[in-house]
Amino acid sequence: xxxxxxxxxxxxxxxxxxxxxxxxxxxxxxxxxxxxxxxxxxxxxxxxxxxxxxxxxxxxxxxxxxxxxxxxxxxxxxxxxxxxxxxxxxxxxxxxxxxxxxxxxxxxxxxxxxxxxxxxxxxxxxxxxxxxxxxxxxxxxxxxxxxxxxxxxxxxxxxxxxxxxxxxxxxxxxxxxxxxxxxxxxxxxxxxxxxxxxxxxxxxxxxxxxxxxxxxxxxxxxxxxxxxxxxxxxxxxxxxxxxxxxxxxxxxxxxxxxxxxxxxxxxxxxxxxxxxxxxxxxxxx
Amino acid sequence: xxxxxxxxxxxxxxxxxxxxxxxxxxxxxxxxxxxxxxxxxxxxxxxxxxxxxxxxxxxxxxxxxxxxx
Lengths: 285, 69
Description:
The structure holds 2 protein chains of 2 kinds.
Chain A: H1 17-45, H2 59-84, H3 88-118, E1 121-125, H4 134-137, H5 139-144, E2 152-160, E3 164-169, H6 171-174, E4 195-199, E5 203-208, H7 215-242, H8 244-252, H9 254-284
Helix pairs in contact in A: 1-7, 1-9, 2-3, 2-9, 3-7, 7-9, 8-9
Chain B: H1 3-32, H2 35-65
Helix pairs in contact in B: 1-2
């Protein structure tokens, strides 16, 4: 049975069916991501002093990923335009470029950015024990300068036993009184050789930088994870439309393939647009 | 909305992001005094201009090819 209105427009909507469908779907996506962004903003606004981390993400890598996604939007629209002009070869190459951009984005996210976080460790110190770790926190000076207190010691977890954690400190805790450490560093600084021993009884909560570590990482992994799943979905659809099966459809009905590419291109643009908001929210602000 | 129109909207948002990133780099340079961020600001500004040029090129090309859906 022939599916109706894949190329011709429906008289009542003035659109072919898939276009109505994709916009309805994108409307539901706006509500999904809109809710998550709203939650992020309110959680951040309501965060207690010293609990919301800054400058933990790698801005140059995030910028590169943003550029890759913008480039992929250009290539997908050029793929669609090539089909409209009945240039299948050009379509094939542009689609390949789009797929590669999506794969590079996901690889950077899953093989570099996320694992870097999973290897990092943070221990929140109990309020009554903050003084004991003053040499790693520098709160006396921060209070004098009117800055938010530090309540967390971070770095690489060397080892732990029943009583304490042994942590190779991040520069912010290795040199807490250095004024340069009052600001976030957007180029990541390497972990120092300085080791701190933190007693477990002084620790409120200590984990690797996982979604359970704090609200910031819960939001970060939820939103970037959901976005990554959308990128993966888009890449899979593009791979299907890049495979020889698409050539058969093109030979039978090129306009039908062009419409399929347009609909998936709309989805891809939406996913990229979400990233245009994710990047400044998480990486820059 | 067609892919063509959505692409133009997307390019406008990307241009705004590039301009915002340029402003952010200038701000970080003022706070940190790190010249590398000034280079980042210039690069972001150049990208913003490139995106604007591309947006106009794309619009004119689509109009010329009469790809209107």
